[in-house]
Design a protein that fits this description.
It is a single chain. This protein is mainly alpha-helical. The N terminus is likely disordered. The protein has one domain. The radius of gyration is 16 Å and the shape is globular. The two termini are 14 Å apart. It is built from eight helices and no strands.
């Protein structure tokens, strides 16, 4: 559970970091396609490399990195970085609501409440880390939306293991 929670938070953090870099954050839900999910999975290695470069060179111009992010997204079949962001957000939203063991989907608010209860009960998580996780989960709970496109759930479930592996 803890590893999946961490993966979800990492994915959300990468998404938010990339969104901030582009100057726009899109929270709208879209209907995912097979091509979207396959492109997202394929793009992760290149996206991670660009994000690592961005973090290492924090004092350099964002324009070069934005151009690189745009090039990566086009390389993997997205029309632009905004489309990639929307796909990433929708995949993350569904992934966060799927139990990694059973691959059972639970609506986002119920899933987040369950994660909050598990983190609260987990005595192996250091207090400082637990506090941070609970704050992040609390914020996620307040912004959680129901899934508008049920077909997205089935599509992400089908690719769950590949998405999880790509996100590391």
């Amino acid at each position: 559970m803890y590893q999946i929670l961490r993966s979800t938070i990492v994915a959300a953090a990468v998404f938010c970091f990339a969104s901030a870099a582009s100057g726009q954050i899109s929270a709208s839900q879209i209907q995912l396609t097979e091509k979207h999910v396959q492109g997202f999975i394929a793009a992760q290695k290149d996206m991670s490399a660009v994000v690592e470069k961005m973090q290492a060179a924090a004092d350099q111009s964002n324009a070069a990195f934005e151009a690189e992010l745009e090039a990566v997204t086009k390389k993997y079949g997205f029309k632009d970085f905004s489309e990639y962001e929307a796909v990433a957000a929708n995949i993350s939203m569904v992934m966060g609501a799927i139990d990694p063991q059973t691959k059972t989907f639970t609506d986002p608010q119920t899933a987040i409440r369950k994660e909050i209860a598990e983190v609260t009960a987990d005595q192996t998580i250091p207090d400082q880390e637990k506090k941070q996780l609970l704050e992040e989960l609390g914020e996620a709970l307040t912004s959680a939306q129901p899934i508008q496109f049920p077909a997205n759930v089935e599509l992400v479930k089908r690719y769950y293991d590949k998405i999880d592996a790509a996100l590391g």
